């Protein structure tokens, strides 16, 4: 057999690094960074090497399976044909929704959905026939505040301002660790080299975080902040800009309104008020505000730590107001909007908020999805609209959403569950049927989502590395087959299913680079990708607000200031605050069955400040019980002065010790699930996003 050379983009995180994969027959010989990729420039992280483990994983399902009970009532899994799997799934979904109403169906789509363009382009082939209000996704435990801020200010849920790190002078970063994540809502491969270039040219990175993270090690400054108080810090910065006459919208002034209303409504949120709660002095807050305003080009950016907390939407709105007030939005060296070759802003709905609410708690929808924290109660609470059937795709919400134990118990009560997933994991073990798609390296690839967040405008398309096995189906084919079967059962005509690459080709030829002749043929001729240039100012033309104005006096977050002020006017509690943490070898719950990513020292430990340990008679390396309102976990504790006192940290995505899963490597590195102690009642009261950072916990020797 001869060696074959393939170009590919890694799909295991948002950085979408270009790869060169060498194969011999059905075997991967090497995986290296593609130096010709205009976005990643040859950079890769350890996750890319693990694509070999993913493709060859013996635990990955290759054929549909159904659950059957043996004579003792114990479940076992039986391989079935695609015809049986698809026919049964379609019939059960239609029967249950006919009997109990369309909202008897629940849908949950996980984080990997956006890493696979076939999932994005073709899920509508099924769900247009099943328009339930009970839709959920990882969005509301991750990035919902970003979407809301973009919808409110810029008129579209995916108009994300992207930090232009390569041209900035001053970067204020909150609750983000891009050295570990490779960026988040910010596609920025090789970020460590970019940070070093920023400081080498005399620029400054100021990091605000309760933990001295990997990114803090290369930052110019790091300031500890009490979890959940970021809104006070951001308000104090904005207050400083207004009170010291440092507001300069510059090129934004002609189409920006409402800053005067904001100045009036935030006047009580002074640096002194913030200092009492954040742990950052009033003087430091004012200094940072002045430096941000006086820099030639500056950025304010925040991610998971400021999104997945009680004031996530308020935080993301305030971050953009700071960029607007300093004139650093839509400006080189500040935050700019991308112009992707297949432009989601032009091609999809702008989104909406609060058009319907969840049945039990009355939580608001966003983009026709309800908060994932409501899923368990919508399954277990009787009445019209109770979820009786569930479709999950590329998701493991038992490990990824608040109070996973409660959801675990709820899933067992479903009448029917089907999962489009390659693994028998903590969630899919509850399914009646599992529909496994092809391996990622067995289908073509185009990044629809992450070009929207990229540090530079590029485009790349790659053919499959391997030929799919006979009798296998891609995820888009599964959606198409299910959609046509459901249509026939409902008395509708089935529709031909267009391959996703044809949709991409049409998007390219109708997109913003059509005059340059960009098409799929162009990308096939350039497998390392095509460089479409640096991000450029695009406002006000890029705005999707009805009047092409940025209205800063958004009613919803302004009203949320009352909740914030009330909370921080109350007596303080004596509990610890739990935060998460990211590792470069991990991504949520779907990276733990690959040896290359879990080898080495155990990373599922609780980090705790030595002073907090001493006060509780806890020994370094011992086992502790971490308890919240909803439950308790036992885990090994490590002393760390990288955490501020009063804060403990546990990584996300572990907990592979539940019975009935088929993930051998993950089971041997099981850890504990932090979402067994996060609280489904702890939400951002404005957006409904899960508040999984800043969870109140107690810690004691086990």
Commentary on this structure:
With 702 residues, the protein is of the alpha/beta class. Among the domains are: 245 residues, Rossmann fold (3-Layer(aba) Sandwich), CATH 3.40.50.740; 136 residues, Barwin-like endoglucanases, CATH 2.40.40.20. 29% of the residues lie in helices and 18% in strands. The protein has 25 helices and 30 strands. The strands form 9 sheets. The chain has a 7-stranded mixed beta sheet, with helices on one face. A 6-stranded mixed barrel has the order 25-29-26-28-27-30. Helix 9 crosses helix 12 and helix 11 packs across helix 12. The mean pLDDT is 96.
What is the CATH architecture descriptor of one domain?
3-Layer(aba) Sandwich
Would you identify the regions where 5 or more consecutive residues have pLDDT less than 50?
none
User: How much helicity do the residues have?
Assistant: 25-40%
| Number of E strands | 30
User: Whole-number radius of gyration?
Assistant: 25 Å
Per CATH, what is the topology of one domain?
Rossmann fold
Any idea of the CATH class of one domain? Alpha Beta
Q: Total helix count?
A: 25
Shape: globular
**For the residues shown, what is the average pLDDT?**
96
Please summarize the sheet with the most strands. Answer: 7 strands, mixed
Question: In angstroms, what separates the terminal alpha carbons?
Answer: 57 Å
* Spatial strand sequence of the major β-sheet: 5-4-19-18-17-6-7
Percent strand = 15-25%
| Broad structural category | alpha/beta
């Amino acid at each position: 057999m001869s060696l074959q050379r393939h170009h590919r983009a890694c799909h295991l995180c948002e950085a979408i690094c270009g790869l060169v994969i060498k194969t011999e027959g059905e075997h991967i010989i090497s995986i290296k960074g593609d130096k010709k990729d205009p976005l990643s420039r040859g950079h890769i992280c350890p996750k890319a090497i693990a694509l070999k483990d993913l493709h060859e994983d013996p635990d990955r399902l290759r054929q549909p399976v159904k659950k059957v009970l043996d004579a003792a009532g114990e479940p076992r899994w039986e391989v079935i044909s695609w015809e049986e799997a698809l026919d049964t799934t379609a019939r059960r979904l239609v029967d249950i929704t006919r009997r109990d109403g369309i909202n008897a169906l629940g849908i949950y789509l996980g984080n990997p959905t956006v890493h696979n363009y076939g999932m994005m382009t073709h899920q509508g082939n099924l769900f247009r026939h099943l328009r339930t209000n009970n839709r959920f996704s990882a969005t509301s435990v991750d990035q919902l505040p970003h979407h809301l801020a973009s919808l409110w200010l810029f008129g579209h849920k995916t108009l994300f301002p992207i930090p232009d790190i390569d041209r900035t002078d001053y970067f204020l970063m909150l609750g983000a660790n891009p050295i570990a994540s490779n960026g988040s809502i910010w596609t920025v491969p090789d970020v460590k080299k970019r940070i070093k270039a920023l400081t080498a040219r005399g620029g400054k990175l100021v990091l605000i975080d309760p933990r001295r993270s990997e990114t803090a090690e290369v930052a110019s400054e790091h300031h500890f902040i009490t979890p959940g108080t970021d809104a006070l810090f951001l308000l104090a910065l904005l207050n400083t800009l207004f009170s010291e006459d440092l507001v300069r919208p510059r090129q934004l002034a002609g189409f920006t309104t409402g800053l005067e209303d904001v100045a009036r409504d935030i006047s009580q949120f002074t640096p002194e008020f913030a200092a009492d709660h954040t742990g950052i002095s009033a003087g430091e807050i004012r200094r940072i505000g002045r430096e941000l305003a006086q820099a030639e080009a500056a950025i304010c950016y925040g991610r998971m730590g400021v999104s997945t907390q009680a004031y996530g939407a308020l935080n993301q709105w305030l971050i953009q107001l700071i960029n607007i007030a300093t004139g650093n939005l839509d400006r080189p060296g500040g935050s700019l909007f991308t112009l992707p070759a297949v432009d989601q802003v032009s091609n999809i709905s702008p989104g909406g908020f609060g058009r319907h609410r969840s049945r039990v708690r009355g939580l608001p929808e966003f983009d026709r999805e309800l908060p994932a924290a409501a899923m368990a109660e919508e399954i277990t609470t009787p009445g019209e609209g109770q979820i009786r059937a569930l479709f999950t795709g590329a998701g493991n919400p038992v490990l990824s959403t608040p109070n996973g134990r409660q959801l675990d118990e709820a899933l067992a009560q479903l009448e029917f569950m089907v999962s489009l997933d390659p693994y028998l994991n903590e969630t899919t073990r509850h399914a009646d049927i599992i529909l496994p798609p092809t391996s990622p390296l067995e289908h073509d690839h185009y990044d629809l989502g992450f070009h929207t967040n990229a540090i530079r405008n590029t485009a790349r398309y790659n053919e499959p590395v391997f030929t799919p096995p006979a009798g296998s189906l891609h995820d888009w084919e599964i959606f198409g087959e299910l959609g046509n079967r459901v249509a026939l059962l409902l008395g509708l005509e089935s529709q031909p299913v267009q391959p996703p690459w044809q949709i991409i080709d049409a998007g390219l030829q109708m997109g913003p680079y059509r005059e340059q002749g960009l098409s799929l043929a162009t990308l096939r001729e350039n497998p390392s990708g095509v460089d479409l240039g640096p991000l450029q100012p695009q406002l006000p033309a890029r705005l999707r607000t009805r009047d092409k104005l940025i209205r800063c006096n958004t009613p919803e977050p302004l009203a949320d200031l009352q909740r914030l002020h009330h909370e921080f006017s109350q007596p303080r509690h004596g509990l610890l605050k739990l935060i998460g943490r990211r590792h470069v070898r991990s991504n949520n719950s779907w990276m733990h069955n690959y040896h290359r990513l879990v080898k080495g020292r155990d990373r599922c430990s609780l980090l705790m400040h030595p002073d907090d340990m001493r006060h509780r008679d806890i020994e370094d390396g011992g086992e502790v019980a971490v308890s919240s309102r909803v439950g308790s976990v036992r885990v090994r504790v490590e002393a760390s002065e990288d955490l501020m006192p009063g804060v403990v940290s546990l990584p996300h995505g572990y907990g592979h010790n539940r019975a009935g899963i088929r993930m051998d490597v993950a089971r041997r590195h099981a850890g504990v699930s932090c979402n067994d102690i996060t609280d489904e009642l702890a939400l951002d009261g404005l957006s409904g996003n899960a508040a999984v950072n800043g969870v109140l916990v107690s810690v004691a020797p086990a």
